[in-house]
Amino acid sequence: MDSDQYRDGHLALHAEQEIVELESALEQSRRENDRLRAENQALHQRQFKPNCRPSHPATVAEPHRPRKRGPPFGHPLWTRRAPDHVDQTVRVAAPATCPHCGCTPLQPSRETRTCRQEDIVLQPQTVVTDFIHDTAFCPCCRRPVFQTAPQELRNSQIGPITKATAVFLRHEVKLSYRDVRKVFAGLFGMPFVPASAMNFDRQIAALGQPLHEDVRRKIRASHIAHGDETHWRVDGQGAQLW
After folding, report:
1. Integer CA distances (angstroms), 66 to 69, 71, 72, 128, 206, in order
2. What average pLDDT does this structure show over 68-81?
3. Is the separation of the CB atoms in 151 and 138 below 8 Å?
4. Hey, which residues does 234 pair with through a beta bridge?
5. Strand partners, 137
6. Helix, strand, coil fractions of the chain, as percent rounded to 5
7. Domain locations along the chain
8. What is the pLDDT, as a whole number, of residue 175?
9. Would residue 108 be called left, alpha or beta, if left means φ above 0 and alpha means ψ between -120 and 50 degrees?
10. Is the Cα dihedral 214, 210, 194, 150 positive or negative?
11. Is residue 203 within a helix (H) or strand (E), and if so which, with residue range?
12. Each residue's pLDDT tens digit, 116-131
């Protein structure tokens, strides 16, 4: 082998090594680009709700078929539960003119139709109760003491039904504290500040702390525990509430 062939073979080997290094650097750059693109997309999705549309729509649009109204075939029929009592009965006279075509006069008929309607009763007033406590002197505490009556919250100007309803509207109906205040001020004439509604939550949470600790001890003592999480958002970022 002469010097020219050795030099050509050495250059070819060096070129192959350089090509391998460039391909490796290119592959690393592609991976880094994919990682940055995924992070950018995740950061963008945190600020907005997920899009339910398919990412790859069909190339050929299918003809639009209107969905058949009603439940799917074989689905059990759902009916609202019937009221278990009737509070009042209202007798409605027969019409003198047909409400559909306006025909008059109408012929009398012995047939009756019953429409049972259930509604709520709103009483826009509050019930104010004065709890007059008889006291007894305690020789240990060296002061008069009294006991709490049923349906009374000790040293509280707002009753338990109001506080329980406010917590229900906040956590079950998902109303804000300001909207809870509007409901009580507008419907029941019972105004309070939004901070009071927030304090209702804290009071009920403090009362439920022993129950929470009891459930936690029982879960820790059980042999099998099935975990479930609820999706939550903290400052626009996805989180899970256990």
Report:
1. 9, 14, 14, 57, 53
2. 73
3. no
4. 237
5. 144
6. 40, 5, 55
7. 152-219
8. 92
9. beta
10. positive
11. helix 194-207
12. 888 777 666 788 889 8
